[in-house]
Design brief:
This protein is an alpha+beta fold and about 300 residues long. The chain contains 10 helices and 12 strands. Strands 1, 2, 3, 4, 5, 6, 8 and 12 form an 8-stranded mixed sheet that branches. A 4-stranded antiparallel sheet has the order 9-10-7-11, sandwiched between helices. Helix 2 packs across helix 3 and helix 9 crosses helix 10. The protein binds cytidine-5'-monophosphate. The site of cytidine-5'-monophosphate (C5P) has 12 residues, from strand 2 and helix 5.
């Protein structure tokens, strides 16, 4: 018997970052939007905890107990008195690895939902969300999908309404960025950051399904830090803007860049322009919103 769960990537349409807290994290006003690029996590009984991964960038994914999906299985088993989990976890990767699109968080949420189904642990939604929050700031959103405002360190979620489809192009960079390093660079560049506040205009643009209004309001406070550590991203942002993107921004902590398109046809045009520009390793087109972790 095996169980497969599909989990989406995310883009942050607003990422407002406050000053570093005493625990080292930053308070956020983080507007998450799930996009239609998915990893699939499959679990099945095994003699011990094992992990395998296939797909683009899978050679960069750790296959030991530090992997967030393995930690999710360990945490759920511990909570239900099951001891060390005897499970094989397979991740079929399609979300760019170390790209600022919450791929690792998606795998953790997927592993939790899959193991819960495999073991019949019957965890409530609240219990799953609490476990997700322990695993990482972005993991709760991977569970719920859609769109949500994340406050605290991003783990306290308030669902947001999305009134239409938004089309995105993602440019995968050659190389990765470490999220803690990007936050440290943010602290260096913005030593007196104000408290983060969600943009009412952006929330309204999502609700209205209005791509032009969303483009006028997207923002990412981590973008200057990501560009400082990865200066060639500027050329990618410029290439997408020249290709007709309504908005061009770094996705989360990067180095993936995200381009909002007027519609699917425009997205295909922007993707072609980015591919021809030679400023990125791969280009993906995806609609949003997308559902959260879903049993197949
Ligand atoms: O929560 P997560 O493990 O995904 O966070 C990874 C790192 O990103 C943290 O160790 C911290 O350096 C940084 N971070 C932060 N403030 C947040 C979320 C993440 O400083 N709200």
């Amino acid at each position: 018997m095996s169980v497969t769960v599909r989990v989406p990537a995310k883009v942050n349409v607003q990422l407002a970052v406050g000053p570093a807290r005493p625990d080292g994290f930053h308070d956020l006003a983080n507007v998450f939007l799930a996009v239609g690029l998915y990893d699939e996590v499959t679990v099945e009984p095994a003699d011990s905890l094992t992990l395998t991964c296939t797909g683009p960038g899978s050679d960069q994914v750790p296959l030991d107990r530090t992997n967030l999906a393995a930690r999710a299985a360990i945490a759920l088993a511990a909570r239900h008195g099951l001891g060390d989990p005897k499970v094989r976890i397979h991740i079929a990767k399609d979300i760019p690895v170390a790209g600022g699109m919450a791929g690792g968080s998606a795998d953790a949420a997927g592993a939790l939902v899959a193991c819960d189904a495999l073991w019949g642990t019957g965890a409530s939604r609240e219990e799953l969300l609490a476990l997700c929050a322990e695993l990482g700031s972005d993991v709760p959103f991977s569970l719920v999908g859609g769109a949500a405002l994340g406050t605290g360190r991003g783990e306290l979620l308030q669902p947001l309404e999305v009134g239409g489809e938004f089309w995105w192009v993602f440019a995968v960079a050659d190389g990765g960025l470490s999220t803690p390093a990007v936050y440290r660079e943010f602290d260096r560049l913005s030593p007196a950051a104000p408290e983060p506040v969600a943009s009412a205009a952006l929330v309204e643009a999502l609700r209205a399904g209005d791509a032009a209004a969303l483009a006028a309001t997207v923002s990412n406070d981590l973008q200057p830090a990501a560009l400082s550590l990865f200066p060639s991203l500027k050329a990618t942002l410029d290439a997408g803007a020249r290709g007709g993107a309504l908005a061009s921004l770094v996705s989360g902590s990067g180095p993936t860049t995200a381009f909002l398109a007027a519609d699917e046809e425009a997205a295909r045009g922007i993707a072609d322009a980015l591919a021809a520009s030679g400023t990125c390793r791969a280009v993906r087109v995806a609609p949003s919103p997308a559902p959260g972790a879903t049993l197949r």
